[in-house]
Design a protein that fits this description.
By secondary structure, the chain is of the alpha+beta class. 57% of the residues lie in helices and 7% in strands. Helix 3 packs across helix 6 and helix 12 packs antiparallel against helix 13. It is elongated.
């Protein structure tokens, strides 16, 4: 049996400090269920997520699946009077074992309702289920957000914690996330990443997921209010700014797109996709030097993405440098043709 590493972290001062920033876009009126949800009045956070997805396929069957999972967890998990690291890992492994027995596996997925039906759930869905069990059984578990990824923390009375990766079934140190996901120290200091999420902020993650789902359906203007609601609840949510900027750009609203993407880049300068879309906006505006700067940043951060190479080829072509244009476009085609890992 594989041994599970245990890592406990001391809460730094900046994790629990509050930050606020002005938004670049017009404030959005939150969806009807949100005010009750952020105050924790509905049953659990996963119930809230399903409520929010009612316009996108939630049925009574999804609530029954969720409630069956919580009922089974309640019957098999014993919470000691005082949890140490070993007890915490035992509880977390018990939740994992239950979900595996129920047939759940990790797959990219945006809507919890669809994940409950298919038994294929992503990191946000996993966290919602873990936290819902924790809310029911009074386990000190909270969600945490990193770049394009959620995980959970088991918080101890002495102010330390244990990070838990549901998809990998093990504990990982903060330093692993910082190195693997290339999280800048400034983003951590400002509270963009690696902080315990308040309920309203986890609700914002769900709004962002619904918006991303709609973008996948090419319903870009329909997605905009969801990203706006996510930003209103979680003003440091870099991913929501990126996604709304991308939706604005796809809706031919370049000015609004530029403001959102610049904000996303300010909050998290390490995302190559944000730099690439900024390059596209500057290319459209014929600001070629700015476009080249952003494409180069995108390649530096994510050399396996073919898009910025193609963008540089378009800049070269617009500048009449046809030989260089062909070279960069050929490079983009070579990268695109490589099998994804």
């Amino acid at each position: 049996m594989k041994r599970i590493g245990i890592v406990r972290e001391k809460i730094p001062y900046y994790i629990i400090s509050a930050c606020a920033f002005l938004l670049f876009a017009t404030p959005v009126t939150l969806f009807p269920a949100t005010q009750a949800a952020v105050q924790g009045r509905p049953r659990t956070i996963a119930h809230d997520f399903l409520d929010m997805e009612k316009a996108h396929g939630t049925t009574d069957a999804h609530y029954l699946i969720l409630e069956d999972i919580i009922r089974k967890a309640s019957g098999r998990i014993t919470i000691p009077a005082r949890c140490d690291s070993a007890a915490a890992v035992g509880i977390l492994r018990e939740i994992d074992a239950l979900l595996r027995e129920e047939g759940f596996v990790f797959r990219n997925n945006l809507l919890l309702s669809r994940g409950l039906s298919s038994r294929q759930i992503d990191c946000d869905n996993y966290c919602a289920i873990y936290v819902s069990i924790a809310e029911t059984l009074n386990i000190p578990i909270l969600p945490v957000y990193a770049p394009n990824h959620s995980f959970i923390r088991f918080c101890f009375d002495d102010g330390t914690w244990l990070n838990w990766e549901p998809a990998q079934v093990k504990s990982l140190a903060d330093s692993w996330y910082v190195k693997t996901l290339r999280i800048s120290g400034e983003s951590i200091r400002r509270g963009v990443y690696m902080k315990n999420l308040e309920r309203r902020e986890f609700i914002a993650v769900e709004y962002n997921n619904i918006g991303a789902y709609l973008m996948g359906e090419k319903r870009f203007t329909d997605a905009l209010p969801y990203f706006g609601a996510a930003i209103e609840l979680y003003p440091l949510f870099s991913s929501a700014f990126h996604n709304r900027g991308t939706a604005f750009y796809a809706s031919r609203m370049a000015k609004e797109a530029l403001l959102d993407l610049l904000k996303a880049c300010e909050l998290d300068p390490s995302q190559g996709s944000t730099h690439n879309t900024l390059g596209d906006i500057y290319l459209d505006a014929k600001e070629y030097e700015k476009a080249l700067h952003e494409y180069a940043a995108s390649i530096r951060l994510d050399p396996g993405n073919y898009a910025p190479y193609y963008g540089i080829g378009l800049v070269m072509k617009a500048q009449g440098r046809d030989d260089k244009a062909r070279t960069w476009i050929r490079k983009s085609e070579e990268i695109k043709a490589k099998p994804s890992r």
